[in-house]
Design a protein that fits this description.
Helix content: under 10%
Largest sheet: 6 strands, antiparallel
CATH topology of the largest domain: Jelly Rolls
Number of helices: 2
Shape: elongated
Radius of gyration: 31 Å
CATH architecture of the largest domain: Sandwich
């Protein structure tokens, strides 16, 4: 029976490893940057167990750069190393299931921000500042670049750690006004998404297929998708030619049935017996 239990545990570890999960080792510095790769931790501790997650951040030189502590007391608490005055209640209710996946993200796009998700529910989003941190020297730690993590020996809750792929949730914001897709989001990373222009007369000068990486980020083989407005109209225009050779002070006016083709903000004019490329200032619509 003991051999069977050992085998099952071993198979479970292998299965989790294949899914991107690694068993937690305490007091070992691990190469990890939670700013570029959110850290995910699996726990199955229940409230009231008083189990803790202790994960500390370190710079490449081994200097302490902050850290996150989670406590499973009668109510769940968090503590940000060298910032929080004490264990603090989460601002929202956590998922009730014992099996939890915590995602810890560090961002620096506008100050130092810690975002914690539990089973894909955002439970903490805090901008570190002198008003949110008790310790006046918090910047000395949290402003350092993070290159390593370490699970402290006091950690009794963390079972596995890793970084699972983040699903793609939609097209990039800057694409959405001109580009569309029939793909239904969310999709898993690696999914090829076909895109085309919303306007029927627009031309996509970039890739017609993009590959999801995470969130709203995509890669493409050619150029980035870009829709250029094109179109055709047929109207009467007066085209002013050069000064008439006979009457030097008069401009000669000719009328043509022209086809206007708009392309890249220029106007191509085409007529059976006449072809020219001219700019807007030489055209006057016939009224």
């Amino acid at each position: 029976m003991r051999n069977l239990q050992t085998t099952l545990i071993f198979l479970q570890i292998i299965s989790l490893s294949l899914c991107g999960w690694l068993p937690v080792e305490r007091e070992v510095k691990i190469e990890w940057d939670p700013e570029s790769t959110p850290l995910e931790i699996k726990t199955n501790s229940v409230l009231g167990s008083n189990d803790h997650v202790y994960v500390f951040f370190y710079s490449a030189e081994g200097q302490l750069s902050g850290g996150v502590v989670l406590r499973f007391g009668s109510t769940p608490h968090y503590w940000l190393l060298y910032c929080s005055p004490s264990y603090t209640n989460f601002p929202v209710k956590l998922p009730s299931t014992a099996d939890k996946v915590w995602r810890i993200t560090l961002t620096r796009t506008a100050g130092v921000r810690i975002v914690i998700q539990c089973n894909e529910v955002e439970v903490l989003n805090i901008l570190l500042s002198y008003s949110t941190c008790r310790y006046p020297y918090w910047r000395s730690y949290w402003n350092r670049d993070v290159a390593k993590i370490q699970f402290h020996s006091s950690d009794t809750a963390s079972d596995y750690y890793g970084s699972q792929p983040v699903s793609c949730t939609g097209l990039k914001a800057e694409w959405r006004t001109a580009i569309r897709t029939t793909t239904k989001f969310p999709v898993v990373p690696g999914t090829v998404v076909e895109v085309n222009c919303i306007e029927s007369r627009a031309l996509n000068k970039g890739s017609s297929e993009v590959t999801c990486t995470s969130g709203t980020e995509f890669i493409f083989n050619l150029n980035e998708p870009e829709c250029i407005n094109t179109g055709t109209k047929t109207m009467m225009y007066k085209v002013y030619t050069n000064v008439d050779r006979i009457e030097m002070n008069r401009k000669k006016v000719r009328e043509y049935q022209l086809q206007l083709i708009y392309e890249n903000s220029r106007i191509h004019i085409k007529e059976t017996s006449f072809m020219a490329l001219i700019s807007d200032e030489y055209l006057e619509k016939d009224t």
